[in-house]
């Protein structure tokens, strides 16, 4: 068991180093950091002095090492655009993104999985077909269109919900939350629904297709042949077997949420990491881009690790020690 | 089937065979699919022949008059039939901008899908057939990339490429950069499927026989694996087209997609968004509708194609 | 009254090309404790017959006509819940692949206990004891320990023993065994067949043994039905059908099997192939390939005609010998 985990952690670290490397390349060699910091009129000597002081003339490996140690401490330099430390910007924006992603994750999972299971079990029912059709429309609606539509209906026409911003946020230590104020709740409804909708339909369709696959297996047929009740067959056997791929789906979902939060934050001008990132891309604000890359990689790698460990818990086939092969000679 | 006097069975003409096939049957029996196909075809044709189909040329400054700006759609009080769906802030006919915008969206979408497919199928064939460390490496890359949402990959590549391109070339290169970014973001699915098919074929006896005879591996791959993989690849490509269109629209909406000189549907929506609150809803609403209808139609086609080609469901 | 009576069973599959007839007017009986072998090529309809009897015919397939009676009562169109009560308790089933028949995520103990729980009044502890007994009965060594193992921790032969244990949990009257040994190694096949025979004799369980392997039938069955293209070609006691096959198809089958003590120049090979369901010939479905074909065969479809005192064959050759229909 431990071997499995160690192997996974090892892979995770390896991926992180690769990402850090790419980020490092980006950070140090794309565009000229010196150009961005010094004005156009600076003399050659001034530039060289700047390069030296920034350590840009040091050997490659040294620079990478410095980058890594800085990154681990959360030190990413100064944003070109906002002229403030990247680390500060990130810590200001992260709670907003995390709360948005969290709310959407709960919404999409709570709705997507049960609906997926239902349409998988009751395959030919009319309600299943309706849900399926709606889900197809859902998959065809780009996130930003959903956002715009919601804004149009609820902000422009009805005027009941705010179309931008986070409402009033309460600062608790390092974290700032918008869940403690009414305006905060009002502000988070549309963005989280927007973000959740696309994900929910994806989850629904994936869970359904897994369910259908499982329902076709021999062990379900055998379970029925043994006279087990529908409840035992559907929930005892089918559902548990669907759980394994569903865990992957949820893992992917969180990753997807983070990616799509960029769009949602832009539409609703939600002061989160995603919005910051888009502005950085438009401006070629490399320190922010590099930092975002690493941050996202950390989140993804961690999620994948958790998913792998969960697999282990759910599927006994993975627990077999590699040195003893399954099914010996009997 | 018909029999000639010698009793040998001859297939009827190709057209008859297509009309008689299982696939066409399932196609013609599903009104939704037929509708989707028609809608998609309409979009393609309109986009291809945009200059002739669109009532106005919205990008020729000479034809624009600021006086026409903010005209509402034809059915409203202040509207006119000259501008069916109204005009935007520059006096451009929204209907025409939609047609030209669809053109850009479709061109980028198609090119990106072609790129993905060629890259993915190529890598998949190599990985499946040659095996060894090449296979492991390609599949590992694919696996890792699959855990990252395509939009993020496209965004990253797009962002980095923009920085690398010198400023004066940015507008010109933007479309190519975009196609590259979206194309790279989707290759893993094709590679997975192709490699799977290549593995299956590789183990078959006729391949061993061909190798013994000395047939070149490339011929084997192209001649045998490729035809087997065409069906699933087609399904992936159709659904991939919908995905590519959405991705491009999203990137353009975010401001990092196509340049302003060649607006796509995404750009139109972005621009129109600014006027939502002041009541000129049509500038963003109609391009949005067009986008959704196009993507929905392509998705429905892809769905049908997948069910039609799935041997397990027959 | 026989334990199981199948009369004029007709199973159809509506498709876009029209309705496919998969099983066409099949009738047979199975007595208590009897082993009926059902043999035939792939696609002849053997598995579908088994599925129809136990009520697990997959839609769009449906029983279009005919009756199936268990202990005299009709079971062919029972509502799902009533049929479910019969499954496992009165009629059990074993399928071909033991690996996919068992849920990989549950221990075999869990799967046994839940099945026992459904069909008996035993509580969990008692059910567990019974499960261990069953496992020992089917020959799993150290059953006390193995009961908490997962399916993938067993070899193929052991898994099939577990499957048999599961099917026999509630002491059903009839077991439908659909190719129970086909997925196993040849050496294990013999063991499983012996086990099946022994258990069924001990528990007086009837068996419908579906297979394409005549050797297994010879070993195990009391009577055998030979199916061809959805119909029964011949049915009779195993000794008779094997030693003296009447239907030309059965003759062909027997001739194709190498047997010790029979020196032949060439094994018989039946020309052609079994027709697809969409292209069943008129008259006797075997007529295009039959070496003894004559005119009537092409026009009229033969019913099962009594031949000798114990067998029936669907062949016009025997029409003259028929002593009353």
Q: Tell the overall outline of chain A.
A: globular
Task: Please work out how many helical segments of chain A DSSP would assign.
Answer: 12
User: Main beta sheet of chain A, described?
Assistant: 2 strands, antiparallel
Structural class of chain C: alpha/beta
- Write down the Rg of chain A: 25 Å
Q: Give the percentage of residues in beta strands of chain C.
A: 15-25%
> Quick check: average pLDDT of chain A?
80
User: How are the strands of the largest sheet of chain A arranged?
Assistant: 1-2
Mean pLDDT of chain C: 85
Unreliable runs of chain C, pLDDT <50, ≥5 residues?
A: 321-325
Give the count of helical stretches of chain C. Answer: 12
Helix content of chain C: 25-40%
- Following the backbone from N to C, one meets helices and strands of chain A in this order, namely HHHHHHHEEHHHHH
What can be said about the biggest beta sheet of chain C? 8 strands, mixed
> In what range is the share of β-strand residues of chain A?
under 5%
How many angstroms separate the termini of chain C?
21 Å
Total strands of chain C: 12
């Amino acid at each position: 068991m431990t071997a499995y985990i160690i192997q996974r952690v090892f892979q995770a670290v390896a991926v992180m180093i690769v990402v850090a490397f790419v980020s490092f390349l980006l950070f140090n060699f794309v565009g000229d950091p010196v150009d961005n910091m010094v004005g156009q009129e600076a003399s050659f000597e001034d530039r060289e002095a700047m390069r030296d002081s920034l350590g840009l003339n040091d050997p490659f490996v040294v620079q990478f090492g410095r980058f890594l140690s800085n990154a681990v401490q959360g030190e990413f330099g100064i944003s070109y655009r906002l002229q403030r430390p990247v680390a500060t910007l990130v810590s200001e924006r992260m709670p907003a993104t995390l709360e948005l992603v969290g709310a959407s994750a709960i919404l999409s999972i709570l709705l997507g999985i049960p609906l997926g299971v239902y349409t998988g079990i009751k395959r030919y029912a009319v309600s299943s077909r309706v849900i399926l059709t709606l889900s197809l429309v859902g998959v065809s609606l780009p996130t930003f269109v959903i956002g715009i539509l919601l804004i149009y209906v609820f902000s422009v026409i009805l005027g009941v919900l705010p179309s931008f911003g986070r409402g009033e946020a309460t600062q608790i230590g390092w974290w700032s939350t918008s869940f403690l104020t009414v305006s905060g709740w009002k502000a988070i409804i549309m963005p989280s629904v927007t973000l959740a909708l696309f994900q929910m339909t994806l989850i629904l369709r994936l869970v359904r297709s897994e369910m259908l696959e499982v329902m076709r297996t021999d062990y379900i047929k055998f379970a029925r042949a043994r006279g087990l009740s529908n409840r035992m067959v559907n929930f005892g056997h089918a559902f548990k077997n669907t759980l394994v791929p569903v865990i992957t789906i949820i893992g992917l979902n969180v990753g997807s949420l983070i990616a799509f939060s960029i769009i949602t934050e832009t539409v609703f001008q939600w002061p989160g990491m995603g919005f910051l990132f888009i502005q950085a891309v438009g401006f070629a604000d490399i320190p922010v881009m590099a930092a975002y890359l690493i941050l996202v990689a950390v989140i993804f790698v961690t999620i994948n690790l958790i998913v792998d460990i969960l697999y282990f818990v759910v599927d006994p086939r993975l627990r077999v020690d590699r040195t003893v092969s399954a099914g010996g000679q009997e | 089937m018909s029999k000639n006097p010698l009793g040998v069975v001859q297939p009827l003409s190709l057209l008859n065979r297509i009309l008689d096939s299982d696939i066409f049957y399932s196609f013609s029996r599903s009104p939704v699919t037929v509708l989707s196909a028609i809608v998609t075809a309409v979009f393609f044709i309109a986009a291809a022949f945009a200059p002739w189909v669109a009532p106005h040329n919205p990008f020729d400054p000479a034809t624009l008059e600021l006086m026409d700006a903010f005209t509402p759609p034809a059915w409203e009080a202040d509207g006119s039939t000259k501008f069916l769906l109204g005009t935007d802030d520059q006096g451009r006919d929204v209907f025409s901008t939609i047609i030209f915008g669809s053109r850009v969206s479709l061109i980028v979408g198609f090119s990106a899908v072609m790129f993905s497919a060629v890259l993915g199928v190529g890598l998949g064939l190599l990985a499946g057939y040659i095996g060894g460390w090449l296979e492991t490496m390609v599949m590992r890359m694919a696996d890792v990339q699959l855990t990252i949402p395509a939009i993020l990959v496209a965004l990253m590549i797009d962002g980095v490429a923009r920085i690398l391109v010198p400023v004066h070339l940015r507008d010109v290169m933007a479309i190519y950069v975009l196609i590259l970014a979206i194309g790279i973001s989707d290759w893993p699915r094709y590679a997975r499927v192709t490699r799977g098919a290549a593995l299956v074929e590789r183990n078959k006896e006729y391949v061993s026989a061909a190798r013994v005879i000395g047939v070149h591996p490339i011929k084997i791959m192209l001649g045998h694996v490729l035809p087997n993989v065409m069906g699933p690849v087609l399904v992936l490509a159709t659904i991939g087209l919908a995905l590519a269109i959405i991705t491009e629209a999203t990137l353009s909406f975010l401001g990092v997609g196509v340049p302003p000189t060649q607006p796509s549907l995404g750009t139109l929506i972005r621009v129109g968004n600014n006027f939502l609150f002041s009541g000129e809803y049509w500038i963003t609403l109609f391009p949005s509708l067009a986008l959704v209808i196009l993507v929905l139609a392509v998705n429905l086609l892809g769905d049908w194609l997948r069910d039609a080609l799935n041997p397990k469901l027959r | 009254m026989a334990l199981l009576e199948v009369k004029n069973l007709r199973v159809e599959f509506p498709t876009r090309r029209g309705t496919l007839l998969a099983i066409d007017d099949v009738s047979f009986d199975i007595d208590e404790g009897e082993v009926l072998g059902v043999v035939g090529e792939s696609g002849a309809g053997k598995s579908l017959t088994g599925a129809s009897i136990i009520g697990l015919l997959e839609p769009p397939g449906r029983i279009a006509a005919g009756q199936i009676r268990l202990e005299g009562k009709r079971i062919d169109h029972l509502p799902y819940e009533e049929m479910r009560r019969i499954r496992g308790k009165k009629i059990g089933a074993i399928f071909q692949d033991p690996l996919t028949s068992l849920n990989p995520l549950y221990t075999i103990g869990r799967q046994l206990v839940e099945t026992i729980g459904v069909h008996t009044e035993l509580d969990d502890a008692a059910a567990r004891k019974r499960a261990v007994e069953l496992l020992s009965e089917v020959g799993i060594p150290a059953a006390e320990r193995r009961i908490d193992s997962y399916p993938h921790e067993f070899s193929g032969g052991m898994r099939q023993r577990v499957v048999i244990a599961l099917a026999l949990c509630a002491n059903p009257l009839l077991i439908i065994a659909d190719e129970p040994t086909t997925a196993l190694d040849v050496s294990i096949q013999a063991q499983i067949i012996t086990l099946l025979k022994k258990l069924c004799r001990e528990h007086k369980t009837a068996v419908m043994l579906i297979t394409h392997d005549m050797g297994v039938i010879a070993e195990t069955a009391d009577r055998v039905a030979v199916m061809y293209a959805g119909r029964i070609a011949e049915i009779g006691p195993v000794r008779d059908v094997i030693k003296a096959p009447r239907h030309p198809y059965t003759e062909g089958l027997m001739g194709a099997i190498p047997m010790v003590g029979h020196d032949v120049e060439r094994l018989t090979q039946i020309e052609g192939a079994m027709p697809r369901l969409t292209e069943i010939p008129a008259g006797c479905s075997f007529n295009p390939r039959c070496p003894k074909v004559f005119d009537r065969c092409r026009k009229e479809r033969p019913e099962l005609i009594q031949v000798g005192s114990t067998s029936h064959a669907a062949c016009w050759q025997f029409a003259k010998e028929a002593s009353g229909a």
